[in-house]
Amino acid sequence: MESTINSRGQTTVPVAVRKALRAKPGTRLNWVLLPDGCILVRAKSRSVLELAGMLESSETVNIEEMNPWRD
């Protein structure tokens, strides 16, 4: 795979890489320069706070309904 860096230092991440990283717009990437000159790119893990509200539910569960599942 190949991409070109533009005059602003930007490049397009190839589709296959985006799919492998499960990257979507707004995904932050970590770039690590390895001693052999290779670069490792990883999708940055999200914090629990960033994930809050991702799963929507129309039904609520109260504490009494959860208690049987505790043990």
Mean pLDDT: 85
Helical residue percent band = 10-25%
Low-confidence stretches: none
* Domain module tally: 1
> For this structure, what is the CATH class?
Mainly Beta
Task: Briefly note the CATH topology name.
Answer: Pemi-like Protein 1, Chain: D
Overall outline: elongated
Strand % is 5-15%
Rg, alpha carbons: 20 Å
Largest sheet: 2 strands, antiparallel
Terminal residue distance: 50 Å
Count of alpha and pi helical runs: 3
Order of helices and strands: HEEHH
What's the architecture, going by CATH?
Ribbon
Structural class determined from secondary elements = alpha+beta
In short:
This protein is of the alpha+beta class. The protein contains 3 helices and 2 strands.
Task: Write up what this structure looks like.
By secondary structure, this protein is an alpha+beta fold. It has one domain (1-54): Ribbon (Pemi-like Protein 1, Chain: D). It has helices at 15-21, 48-51, 63-66, and strands at residues 29-33, 39-43. The protein has a two-stranded antiparallel ribbon. β1 (29-33) and β2 (39-43) form a beta hairpin. It is elongated.
Map the helices and strands.
Blueprint: H1 15-21, E1 29-33, E2 39-43, H2 48-51, H3 63-66
Antiparallel strand pairs: 1-2
